[in-house]
Amino acid sequence: MKNYELMVIFTPVLSNEEYTNATKNLKKMVTDSGGEIVGEDAWGLRSFAYPIDKKTTGLYFLMEYRVEPSFNHRFQIQMNRDETIMRFMYTVLDKHAIAYNARKRSGEKINPIPVTEKEEA
């Protein structure tokens, strides 16, 4: 099983209940296929840098999950069929990204850029 991160942008016309049900459906697809949800983060309504389908905002949802690689093709087909999903992208996480996400979920303060002392001239 591999770790993946999924970012989904739902249409902004969804109610809170519809948004919650849509995210539950995504999680249910993963768990029904034998995968597990590692973490999730509902970002809510965010503005776009440019209009998508004549809309300037969208409901963002981020999910980290573990599943067999063959599942993602079926998952992609189901997300393409869902009319509430405007855009989605899933990525394979390497060991560094997995560790970073674990630290982030635990609440540890994260400094992505290492601080080094300046060399004296």
Summarize the structure.
With 121 residues, the protein is an alpha+beta fold.
- CATH first level: Alpha Beta
Count every beta strand, where a strand is a DSSP E run of 2 or more residues.
4
User: What profile does the largest beta sheet have?
Assistant: 4 strands, antiparallel
Strand residue percentage: 35-45%
What pattern of helices and strands is seen along the backbone? EHEEHEH
Helicity, as a percent range:
25-40%
Give the count of helical stretches: 3
Q: Mean pLDDT score, rounded?
A: 89
> Distance N terminus to C terminus?
50 Å
Structural class: alpha+beta
Low-confidence stretches: none
Provide the CATH superfamily.
Ribosomal protein S6/Translation elongation factor EF1B
Strand order of the largest sheet: 2-3-1-4
* Gyration radius, in Å: 17 Å
Domain count, please report it: 1
What is the CATH topology descriptor? Alpha-Beta Plaits
What general form does the structure show? globular
Q: What's the CATH architecture name?
A: 2-Layer Sandwich
Q: Care to describe what's here?
A:
The protein is α+β, with helices and mostly antiparallel strands and 121 residues long. It has a single domain, classed as 2-Layer Sandwich (Alpha-Beta Plaits). 33% of the residues lie in helices and 39% in strands. The chain has a four-stranded antiparallel beta sheet with strand order 2-3-1-4, with helices on one face. Strand 2 and strand 3 form a beta hairpin.
